[in-house]
């Protein structure tokens, strides 16, 4: 199975995507063997959710762990008591 990124955009977006896919290939894909596409898909999701987003600091978000950065974002944007949420 070939893992690649087909998106285009600014050089900064592409650098982040290339870095992610290099990490995914080196730390997950090349270390395992997968019988089916479904097995590969589950392994990728497990890697992203359990390892990449929960343990690895990322330079693009100030060397924070993505899960912690997301928690902080939701905490900052949570409506206070009596405040109505903004409509989309």
Topology:
Layout: H1 11-27, H2 37-55, H3 66-77
Question: What this model shows, in words?
Answer:
GO terms for molecular function: nucleic acid binding. Residues 2-66 form the Integrase catalytic domain. The chain is mainly alpha-helical. The protein has one domain (11-77). Helix content is 55%, strand content 0%. It has helices at residues 11-27, 37-55, 66-77. The radius of gyration is 17 Å and the shape is elongated. The N and C termini lie far apart (39 Å).
Global outline: elongated
| Percent of residues in helices | 40-55%
Oligomer: single chain
Give the tally of structural domains: 1
User: Main β-sheet: number of strands, strand sense, barrel status?
Assistant: none
Number of β-strand runs: 0
Q: What is the mean predicted local confidence, pLDDT?
A: 84
Low-pLDDT segments, ≥5 res? none
SSE series = HHH
Please identify the structural class as seen in this structure. Answer: mainly alpha
Can you count the helices?
3
Span of the ends, CA to CA: 39 Å
User: Which radius of gyration do the C-alpha atoms yield?
Assistant: 17 Å
- Measured by DSSP, the beta-strand proportion falls in under 5%
Short overview:
The protein contains three helices and no strands. It has 88 residues and is mainly α.
Keywords:
Integrase_cat-core, 55% helix, single chain, Transposase, mainly alpha, 3 helices, 88 residues
């Amino acid at each position: 199975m070939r893992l690649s990124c087909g998106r285009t955009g600014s050089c900064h977006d592409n650098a982040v995507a290339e870095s992610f896919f290099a990490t995914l290939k080196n730390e997950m894909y090349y270390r395992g063997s997968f019988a089916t596409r479904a097995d590969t898909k589950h392994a990728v999701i497990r890697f992203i959710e359990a390892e990449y987003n929960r343990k690895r600091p990322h330079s693009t978000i100030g060397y924070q762990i993505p899960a912690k950065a997301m928690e902080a974002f939701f905490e900052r944007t949570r409506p206070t008591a009596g405040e109505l949420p903004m409509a989309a």
